[in-house]
Design brief:
heterodimer, A: mainly beta, six-stranded mixed β-sheet, 11 strands, 0% helix, B: 118 residues, mainly beta, seven-stranded mixed β-sheet, four-stranded antiparallel β-sheet
């Protein structure tokens, strides 16, 4: 079936370095993608989104890249800070029947080292 | 921004009892609400989707008689775990969707409810 997956389950980076978190998706009908940050014991927090008609979108310290040719999504975090330590999920949005649904990837644990 | 609340944040119940979790959209009307379950170190798995005033649509493998969902208004949905067992212990997260013009629909998440069944 369709799925959204991640290449790396864990990622450790030095404080101040840039982080890149990757995600592969398989549903070519997905037209909207979102990155969420989830801290321990909390719900997912929206970080940034991108529509399928775009290949790059920038936010504050974050950039999302979308490569539809290889069905790949990445989240880049500039100057990673200790507060960025969390699990990051990509999610794809597509229609299932007549309803729009969000499918989550497996998540990447980002640890920022001092 | 849009805020979604859940109550309680944590609940411990005995095996065989039922527990109700509330999800509220505080500053917007949610056309659709979603319930997710998350086991430790795993992703969010959609359990069911509910639209205000209509029956919930459950994902394959989710028992509708065990996980009762009521979506009575545009700002409130409840999930009742009936006859809870230890394997129902999990982190339950609700989400509410608002319309921001086609084709994009923003979806906001609650803080989650940690259920422990003893």
């Amino acid at each position: 079936g369709e799925s959204v997956g991640l290449h790396l389950p864990t990622l450790s980076v030095q404080e101040g370095d840039n982080s890149i978190i990757n995600c592969a998706y398989s549903n070519s009908a997905s037209d909207y993608f979102i990155w969420y940050k989830q801290e321990s014991g909390k719900g997912p927090q929206f970080i940034i989104d991108i529509r399928s008609n775009m290949d790059k979108r920038q936010g504050q310290r974050v950039t999302v890249l979308l490569n539809k040719t290889v069905k790949h999504l990445s989240l880049q975090i500039a100057a990673t800070q200790p507060g960025d330590s969390a699990v990051y999920f990509c999610a794809e949005s597509s229609f299932s029947g007549s309803a729009r649904q969000l499918t989550f990837g497996s998540g990447t644990q980002l640890t920022v080292l001092p | 921004g849009a805020v979604v609340s859940q109550h309680p944040s944590r609940v411990i119940c005995k095996s065989g009892t039922s527990v109700k979790i509330e999800c509220r959209s505080l500053d917007f009307q949610a056309t659709t609400m979603f319930w997710y379950r998350q086991f430790p170190k795993q992703s969010l798995m959609l359990m069911a989707t509910s639209n205000e005033g209509s029956k919930a649509t459950y994902e394959q493998g989710v028992e509708k008689d065990k996980f009762l969902i009521n979506h009575a208004s545009l700002t409130l949905s409840t999930l009742t775990v009936t006859s809870a067992h230890p394997e129902d212990s999990s982190f339950y997260i609700c989400s509410a969707r608002t319309r921001r013009g086609p084709p994009i629909y923003e979806q906001y998440f609650g803080p989650g409810t940690r259920l422990t069944v003893t």
